Amino acid sequence: EPFVADEYIERLAWRTPGGGSRGGEAFDPKRLLEEFVNHIQELQVMDERIQRKVEKLEQQCQKEAKEFAKKVQELQKSNQVAFQHFQELDEHISYVATKVCHLGDQLEGVNTPRQRAVEAQKLMKYFNEFLDGELKSDVFTNSEKIKEAADIIQKLHLIAQELPFDSLVNFCSSHSSAGKYHDLECQLIQEFTSAQRRGEISRMREVAAVLLHFKGYSHCVDVYIKQCQEGAFLRNDVFEDAAILCQRVNKQVGEVFSNPETVLAKLIQNIFEVKLQGYVKDQLEEHRKSDAEQYLKNLYDLYTRTTNLSSKLMEFNLGTDKQTFLSKLIKSIFISYLENYIEVEIGYLKTRSAMILQRYYDSKNHQKRSIGTGGIQDLKERIRQRTNLPLGPSIDTHGETFLSQEVVVNLLQETKQAFERCHRLSDPSDLPKNAFRIFSMLVEFLCTEHIDYALETGLAGIPSSDSRTANLYFLDVVHQANTIFHLFDKQFNDHLMPLISSSPKLSECLQKKKDIIEQMEVKLDMGIDTLNCMIGQMKHILAAEQKKTDFKPEDENNVLIQYTNACVKVCGYVRKQVEKIRHSMDGKNVDTVLMELGVRFHRLIYEHLQQYSYSCMGGMLAICDVAEYRKCAKDFKIPLVLQLFDTLHALCNLLVVAPDNLKQVCSGEQLASLDKNILHSFVQLRADYRSARLARHFS
C-alpha cells in the first residue's frame, strides 16, 4: 500500500501506552515523546542499512555492465571474422560453379554430336532394312511400339525427300517402304479413333501429338469431328444440340490437340455447313413457294436462332477474327434466302393487307366505291353543302363508319412483324430502304385504302343543311380516324424510327407522314360542314316548335311557362352535339370546331329572334329563352361564344325596358360598342314601337 505519514503516526501513537488513543488510559506526553525519539532512531538505522545495500547493488551492476560490454565487443570481432570467411567461401563457390558450367558445355558439345551420330546410325540401319526389303527390327514388328515406329518412319520420309532421284526411286520401289508410311498413318488414326470411343484423353493426346507431323493429321481431326457428332443431334432442337456439343468439345479439345482453336473452328464450320444448312433448307424450301407467311416466319425464326447460336460460340477461342468467321458461316447458309427477302416481304404484306380489308368490307356487305378525290369533287361537295343545291345525291352509310379497330390492329400487327423481320434479315446498308418500303405499304392500305376511304365515304354521306334527317355519322368517323392515327403514329415512332433514324430515309418518311396528315386534315376541314347540318336541324326545330303567339300571347296576364318549348328542344339538341364533338375530337380541334358551331348557333338565334314582334310579356319570355341559350353556350367553354350570348341577352332587354330608359340602357357597358342600327332593329321588334312616344325617345 502507499505510505501515508499521518496514518503511520496514528498507528504508532495507538500502540504506545499513554498515547491517549486507548480508552481509560491517561495521556502521557513524555512517554509518547520518548517513543517517537526511539522510533526515529530505529528508522535512521534502517535507512543507513538500506542505503549501504543499495550502494553495494549499484557497484555490482556497474561491474556486470562492464563485463557484458567486453563480451559484446568480443562477439562483434568474431562476427567480422565469420563474415570474412563467408565472403571467401562465396567466391570459391562461384569459381567452382563457373568451372562446372564450362565443363557441362564441353560435355554437351561432345555428347550432342555423339547422340546425333547414334541416331543417324540407327536411321541408317532402318534405312538399310527398307532397302533390303526385310524389316527385322522390333520397333517395326511390335505393335506396342507404334509411337517409336511412327517417329522413325517420319524421319525416314523426310530423308527420302532429300535423296537424289535415282536413290529415291530405288528406296520407294522396295516392297514395304512405299506403303509403310501410309499403313502406319492409318494405324495411328485407328488407334486415335479407338481411344476416342473409349474416352481415353491421354492416349488421344499422345497419338495426336505423333500424327501432328504426318500428312494425315487433318484426317485425324476430321475423324475426331465426325465422332464428336455421333449421337449429338437426337432432339428436335438442332441449335440447342449444337451449342451443347460445342460446349462439351471446347472443354476436351484443349486436352487433346496442340491447336485447339483450329480444331474447334473446323467443328463449328462442319456443323454450320452440314447440319444447320441442311436443316434450314428443309424448313424453308417446304414453304418457299406455297406459303409466304410461314416461309417468312420460319426464315426469321431460323436466322434469329442461328445468330443466337453464333453469339454463344463467340465465348470460345476460335482464332483471331472469330466475328468475321461466324458471320461468313451464317451468310453462307442464308445468302440465297436473304437476297430476295424484301420482295417476298412486300408481296406477302400487300396480299395480306388487301385480304384483311376485303374480308372486313365483305363482312359489312359493302362494295368499295371509287370515290373521287380530285379538286372538282371537293368543289362540288363544298358548293352542295354551302348552297344547299343538290349537285349530286349524298351516300347513305346507314350509320356505318367503315373504320374498324380490329382491321387496324391486324394491319399494324402485320407491319410490326414485318419491321422486326426487316431489322433482323436486311443488310445494314439496305435496312432504311427496306423499312421505307414496308412503311409505304402501311400508308397505302391503312391510311389510303382504309382511313382515307372512310373519310371520303363519310364526307359523301353528310346530308345538306336543309335535309330533315340528322345524319351526323361523320363525327363518329372523325373520332375513330383520330384514334387510329394515334396508333399509326405510335408504330411510326416505336418501330420505324429506330430503323431509319441515322439515314437519309428519315426525312423522306417524315415528309410522307406529314403529307398524310395534311391530306386527312383537309378532309376533316371539309367535314366541318357537318355543322351546317346541325344548324339546319336547329332551324327545323325552331320552325316546327316556335309560334308567333309565344312572344305575343293573347292573354298577357296568364303566361305560365318559363321558356318556350322550341328553346328547350334546341338546347337539348345543342348539348348532345357539343358532347359528341368533344368525344370525337381532341386537342385544339375541339375548341376550333366548338367556336365555329357556337358562332353559327348565335347567328341562328339572333336571326330567329328578329322574325317576331314582342309584347311586354313576350319580351320577358324571349329574355328567358336567351338566358337558357346562354346557359347552353357555357357548355362550349369558349369565351367568345359566351360573350356573344351575353350581348344578345343585353339586346333582348331592349324589348321590355320602359321607353324613358331606352337611351340609358343603350349606353350601358355591353351595348355601347354596338352599331346603332343593330340596337334600332331590336327596338323595332317591340309591339309598341309605332307609338309616337317610343319612336321619339329612341330617336
Automatic annotation (TrEMBL):
InterPro entries per record: Sec10-like (IPR009976), Sec10_HB (IPR048627), Sec10_N (IPR048625)
Domain Exocyst complex component Sec10 N-terminal: 29-137
One Pfam family recorded for the sequence: Sec10_N
Domain Exocyst complex component Sec10-like alpha-helical bundle: 148-698
Coiled-coil residues: 40-78
GO cellular component, one term: exocyst
Keyword Zinc: no
The entry's keywords: Coiled coil, Exocytosis, Transport
Highest taxon, organism lineage: Eukaryota
GO terms for biological process, alphabetical: exocytosis; Golgi to plasma membrane transport
Family recorded in the similarity comment: Belongs to the SEC10 family.
The protein's name in its UniProt record: Exocyst complex component 5
Gene: Exoc5
